[in-house]
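Entry 12.
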Amino acid sequence: MAKTTKAKKTTKATRAAEAALDAAAAAAKDAKRLSKTLPKKDAKKLRSLADDAKDAAQASKKKVSRTPRKVEKKAVAAIDRIDKAVGKAEAKLAAANKAAAKKRADRAKKETRKKSKATPVSAEPGLYETPPAEPAAAPAPAAPPAPVVTEDLSALTVLQLRARARDAGHSGYSRYSKAQLMALLSS
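Predicted 3D structure (tokens):
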């Protein structure tokens, strides 16, 4: 007599458990991949949860056939824990990216303000200017600049030389050395 083997019917619960196991394995793999892009603390937590999900996904066929609902429940719980941790990590990353973007925008605003203070530009001529109260008188003749003695300049500090350059109407002197400032002021 030939021995016949009966194929066991797979129930809905068994199929659901197998699908949950596959999903848990995929979630574990994705979580491992994501953990490489996260900060250490978040990555460690996510790797731990991925290992748990991987363990839950490795249920034996015997266990799946005997207690499919229990196996499914365990796999689904592991997936939920991973999803929750990923959500928290993504929220932290989004907050960090938002803060970094805000910092960049603030820095750009600051640079714009610096530039606008250095070279004031009005949108329309005369928009912010007040009209003179009386007609402008002819400018008084300017006094000729006093000759600067080179020996006198060498006794001054760099800060004093910069102040003199500012008073003389020069520009671009802020990074000059003492010798360069002395040459600028003596010319």
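Annotation: Residues 150-186 form one domain. The chain has two domains: 12-118, 150-186.
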